[in-house]
Design the sequence.
């Protein structure tokens, strides 16, 4: 069901309620539909149907293959198709500035020209061939857009120096406070800036078939620009927008998905034993009470920033990498696979140099098999869908809340129960209510599991139990590793 249909249904319900209000309170009373106290949904955008159960995959083109080109990445599409991901997010594809460049090759986020492709990756024709091939295999493709700043030697700096923010003494300036010395900030009060960047976005969608954007530091750009561009892009084709920001208002008319930084940071603390599972309560309470029902919040284990600057998944999650990954794919949120995760990448990839992923590790990588199984599990269980399509997480009350993180999600007859143990010893837990009761199949094994009120459940050390109603196709039932 689309957001538009949901809003139409809500409007119809409001009209019916308004009629009942008028009948019961007399003709002089205002109908509820016209009352200032009637709830109104602030979300006006419509998610494309293909985002319903989509999983994101981030491609760092430079490191994705030994060649580091669009053509080489294109050859890897069948493997990504087998993994089961849906939306391919390419890190910036544009030429990289040379002035004040960091490292040998520079940062992809130091953009020299929004309207061109980095020759390091290939030609415009190569990029178009990649997008066309991705579409032919059922993928959608989004581009990383760096709107907040440009490279020092972007032509705009010479042609339109007034389009840039300045220091107190009138010089170009990088983003304040950050160590981003290879870039200078655009001045978003200038209409020319908006037209130039917006025109580039339209070009890639219109002329190359791009399906949307991931907006770098989206919160540093005025929200009204993103809302304007959402409408302009939708006039070309339905798009998916992911914003690097954590604010509810960005979901009203601009972005389908935003970053769940609070989830990621909490997950690392819990995984390292710096906090117990109750640390998640604050995140999920706010997620349910503050954020729009339609919001897709990216619950990521790793992306380019975390890998380069925080540490590898092994460094960040240690023995709890597997259960935390399962939570990121089954709790409320839209999950992300960063290139190399499915190949058991164990290193921090260089950011300013060539440092290709060693795909030989993909053979025998149990973690990669887990990711594939989790994606299949999400698609088989409607309760785990993204945004308004999925079910709310409801806490399963137990006798050991500081040891076991437990919840259930159920919708339209489909029910999924998750229990997570982030400690180094098995834990036997007893639910104190009947929410978890039911007949299920176990994730991956397909084993039948029945839970009755009062039954105890054992969760393995640094592990999880993931159960889905037997009526749902919740497998692959058995996966060989």
Sequence:
């Amino acid at each position: 069901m689309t957001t538009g249909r949901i809003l139409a249904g809500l409007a119809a319900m409001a009209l019916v309620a308004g009629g009942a209000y008028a009948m019961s309170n007399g003709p002089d009373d205002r109908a509820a539909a016209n009352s200032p106290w009637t709830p109104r949904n602030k979300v006006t955008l419509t998610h494309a149907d293909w985002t319903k159960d989509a999983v994101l995959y981030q491609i760092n083109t430079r490191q994705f293959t030994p060649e580091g080109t669009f053509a080489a990445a294109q050859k890897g599409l069948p493997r990504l198709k087998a993994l089961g991901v849906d939306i391919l997010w390419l890190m910036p594809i544009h030429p990289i500035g040379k002035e004040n460049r960091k490292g040998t090759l520079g940062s992809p986020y130091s953009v020299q020209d929004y309207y061109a492709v980095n020759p390091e990756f290939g030609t415009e024709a190569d990029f178009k061939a990649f997008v066309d091939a991705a579409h032919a295999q059922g993928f959608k493709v989004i581009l990383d857009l760096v709107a907040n700043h440009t490279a020092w030697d972007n032509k705009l700096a010479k042609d339109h120096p007034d389009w840039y923010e300045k220091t107190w003494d009138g010089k170009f300036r990088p983003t304040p406070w950050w160590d981003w010395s290879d870039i200078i900030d655009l001045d978003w009060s200038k209409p020319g800036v908006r037209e130039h960047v917006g025109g580039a976005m339209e070009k890639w969608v219109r002329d190359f078939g791009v399906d949307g954007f991931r907006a770098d530091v989206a919160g540093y750009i005025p929200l009204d620009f993103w809302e304007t561009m959402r409408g302009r892009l939708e006039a070309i084709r339905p798009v998916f927008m992911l914003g690097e920001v954590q604010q509810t208002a960005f979901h009203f008319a601009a972005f389908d998905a935003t970053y769940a930084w609070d989830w990621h940071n909490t997950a690392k603390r819990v995984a390292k034993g710096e906090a117990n599972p109750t640390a998640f309560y604050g995140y999920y309470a706010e997620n349910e009470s503050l954020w729009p029902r339609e919001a897709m919040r990216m619950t990521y284990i790793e992306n380019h920033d975390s890998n380069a600057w925080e540490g590898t998944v092994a460094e960040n999650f240690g023995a709890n990498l597997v259960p935390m990954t399962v939570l990121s794919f089954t709790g409320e949120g839209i999950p992300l696979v960063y290139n190399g995760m499915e190949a058991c990448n164990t290193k921090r990839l260089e950011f300013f140099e060539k440092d290709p992923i060693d795909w030989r590790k993909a053979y025998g990588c149990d973690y990669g098999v887990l990711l594939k199984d989790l994606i299949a599990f999400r698609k088989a269980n409607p309760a785990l869908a993204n945004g308004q399509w999925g079910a709310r997480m409801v806490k399963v009350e137990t006798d050991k809340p500081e040891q076991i993180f437990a919840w259930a999600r159920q919708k339209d007859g489909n029910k999924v129960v998750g229990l997570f143990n982030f400690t180094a010893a098995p834990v036997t837990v007893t639910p104190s209510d009947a929410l978890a009761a039911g007949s299920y199949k176990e994730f991956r094994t397909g084993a039948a599991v029945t839970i009755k009120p009062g039954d105890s459940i054992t969760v393995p050390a640094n592990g999880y139990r993931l159960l889905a109603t037997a009526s749902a196709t919740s497998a692959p039932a058995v996966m060989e590793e």
